[in-house]
Amino acid sequence: MQDVRVKICGLRTEADVAAVARAGAAYAGFVFFPKSPRHLTLEVARTLALGAPDGLCKVALVVDTDDAALDALVEAVPLDMLQLHGHESPERVAAVKARYGLPVMKAMGVADEGDLAGLLEMSLVADQLLIDAKPPKGADLPGGNGLAFDWRLLVGRKWLRPWMLAGGLTPDNVAQAVRLTGARQVDVSSGVELSPGVKDPAKIAAFVEAAQGVRGGVPILR
Ligand SMILES: O=C(O)c1ccccc1N[C@@H]1O[C@H](COP(=O)(O)O)[C@@H](O)[C@H]1O
């Protein structure tokens, strides 16, 4: 059985990237959404991405972004994956994949059973799914709010593509979430912060350790 692969999202400093690499996370997420406290300029993102160690997958999170802005992003920042975290349709996901030749992870908000059909449809086109809590109506951010959904909705479900669990995960609850859902990949932003946008290296390390301390539903005794 493989280790659980961890994505830490919303990195803003070189120290954040170093902490993520040191902890053994697989993915580093950079947010390009001006309303977010984790939003980066292209210049800062380029510096962080160029300084990231080999093997760390650099993911750009964008929300309903048009081609002009995506062109500028992909031109400026060396990236390994795009995360579409808005209302992008399957057709838009396919168009982004074709235009940039980068793998695309599509975030899908889940609140109840009714949201699961959309995931299946999206798994026909996206390279990966990111299954997050649905943001409350009127929320400023479509993600990164520290909100969890009922993980029991995912028990026994299968998708056509790899998927990542997100939404309200913390060092304290990620092991339970992995055990219950069988997730092989998890993503966190606010759960490893001291305050919005300020990552805590100790929480990052604790999160990765907790996520990877579970195999096949049984906690590992180290
Ligand atoms: O992190 C953000 O600021 C953000 C902004 C806009 C869309 C998504 C965002 N974050 C993503 O949301 C999930 C869940 O966040 P949290 O762990 O509940 O705080 C996170 O994994 C990011 O990929």
UniProtKB/TrEMBL annotation:
Q: Which Gene3D superfamilies would you find in this protein's record?
A: Aldolase class I
This entry's Gene Ontology molecular function terms read: phosphoribosylanthranilate isomerase activity
Which Enzyme Commission numbers does its entry carry? 5.3.1.24
- What reaction does this enzyme carry out catalytically? N-(5-phospho-beta-D-ribosyl)anthranilate = 1-(2-carboxyphenylamino)-1-deoxy-D-ribulose 5-phosphate
Specify the pathway.
Answer: Amino-acid biosynthesis; L-tryptophan biosynthesis; L-tryptophan from chorismate: step 3/5
- One Pfam short name: PRAI
Report the record's Gene Ontology biological process terms: L-tryptophan biosynthetic process
Q: Tell me which residues make up the N-(5'phosphoribosyl) anthranilate isomerase (PRAI) domain.
A: 6-209
> Which InterPro entries does the UniProt record give?
Aldolase_TIM (IPR013785), PRAI_dom (IPR001240), RibuloseP-bd_barrel (IPR011060), TrpF_fam (IPR044643)
Assigned keywords, A-Z: Amino-acid biosynthesis, Aromatic amino acid biosynthesis, Isomerase, Tryptophan biosynthesis
Q: Which family does it belong to?
A: Belongs to the TrpF family.
Q: Which PANTHER family match?
A: N-(5'-PHOSPHORIBOSYL)ANTHRANILATE ISOMERASE
The cross-references to HAMAP family, in alphabetical order and at most eight, read: PRAI
Q: What is this protein called?
A: N-(5'-phosphoribosyl)anthranilate isomerase
Q: Which organism is it from?
A: Tabrizicola piscis
Write the lineage as a comma-separated list.
Bacteria, Pseudomonadati, Pseudomonadota, Alphaproteobacteria, Rhodobacterales
Q: Which gene encodes it?
A: trpF
